[in-house]
Amino acid sequence: MAEEMDSNMRQFLSDRRLSIADLAKKASSESSETAAERRERLRALAIEKREAELSQLRMEDRYETQVQENFALLTNLHEACFTKCGRRDDVSYLTMAEGICFRNCLNKFNTWYPRLGEQTQDAAFKTYWGLTQELEQEVKKN
């Protein structure tokens, strides 16, 4: 029985083993990107990389901004959902109906929020980045 499980595990692992060649083959077959599109995409990435290297802002700044945004957003979400759903003032907890309302409020947000990043594209960071770039340009002029 143990030998059979070992051979099954070996078979399982060998079936799922990844290799660079397989991944490259799969990536090239799935890509519908033309040479011009690829060149434009790489050019945009190179510009972003160059701007990031020349700026005073670093990846740590971007990460800190994202953490602060998420903290503020989720704190306000919980507070807003609690305020919306908490109707009774005589108890310090949510009733069953209020709890269901609170859960549904959070679930609605959870279906909407994953698309928020695509829609805003790090708007706060880009605003901060733009202001920093303007200041750096002014400093260079003076």
Automatic annotation (TrEMBL):
UniProt domain Tim10-like: residue ranges: 64-116
Alphabetized UniProt keyword annotations: Chaperone, Disulfide bond, Membrane, Mitochondrion, Mitochondrion inner membrane, Protein transport, Translocation, Transport
Keyword Disulfide bond: yes
This protein's record includes keyword Iron: no
Localization terms from the record: Mitochondrion inner membrane
Main location: mitochondrion
GO biological process: protein transport
Membrane topology: Peripheral membrane protein
Signal peptide stretch: none
Gene Ontology CC annotation, any one: mitochondrial inner membrane
Family annotation (Gene3D superfamilies): Mitochondrial import inner membrane translocase subunit tim13 like domains
Family: Belongs to the small Tim family.
Subunit record text: Heterohexamer.
Domain comment quoted from the record: The twin CX3C motif contains 4 conserved Cys residues that form 2 disulfide bonds in the mitochondrial intermembrane space.
Function, in words: Mitochondrial intermembrane chaperone that participates in the import and insertion of some multi-pass transmembrane proteins into the mitochondrial inner membrane. Also required for the transfer of beta-barrel precursors from the TOM complex to the sorting and assembly machinery (SAM complex) of the outer membrane. Acts as a chaperone-like protein that protects the hydrophobic precursors from aggregation and guide them through the mitochondrial intermembrane space.
Protein name in UniProt: Mitochondrial import inner membrane translocase subunit
Organism: Favella ehrenbergii
Origin organism lineage: Eukaryota, Sar, Alveolata, Ciliophora, Intramacronucleata
